[in-house]
Amino acid sequence: MKKILFFVLLMVFTLSSTMVFAGKWVAKPADPAKSENKLSEAEVTGMKNRVEEISNLDKSNMTVAEKRELRKESKEIKESVKKDGGYIYIGGSTILLIVILIIIL
Hints:
Helix content: over 70%
Largest sheet: none
């Protein structure tokens, strides 16, 4: 009984402390114009097609600078599509706590 009470109190304090720390940080977008605009499906497919074109190019005759430009362009396209996608990030400790709660309950 003491072990269960200890783990319950530990989880309560752990979960409440993450909420306190999470409330202090405020995300500031790097470029407000880019973060407010959502990409349409046509733009996303166009960007994906451009990335495929870049990957299928014959890069043996290109200079180092041209290759670097293509690499930067493909990275920028991938990041813009990824930002627009709305991914959810869940940390490992959060998943562990959720699993423990499910097992206990």
